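>> received
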Amino acid sequence: MTPRREFHQLQAVEIADAFAAAGVEYLFIGKGGAILLGFPGTTQDVDVYVDKTPENSERIIRALLRSPASG
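>> returned
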């Protein structure tokens, strides 16, 4: 099993930027979402809730394919 990399806030910024550029409707939720909003926390996970329409799904795919993290 590949070890998980530690989460860095910059990763969430990259996702937010890619989603914004593609018009994706989404929310960061959970403890990770609270951390992104400035609340202290100790977990390293971030949950992303996306609108589950076909149109938004296509935008998500386009956003992730253009993302620097997609390599």
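>> The chain has a mean pLDDT of 80.
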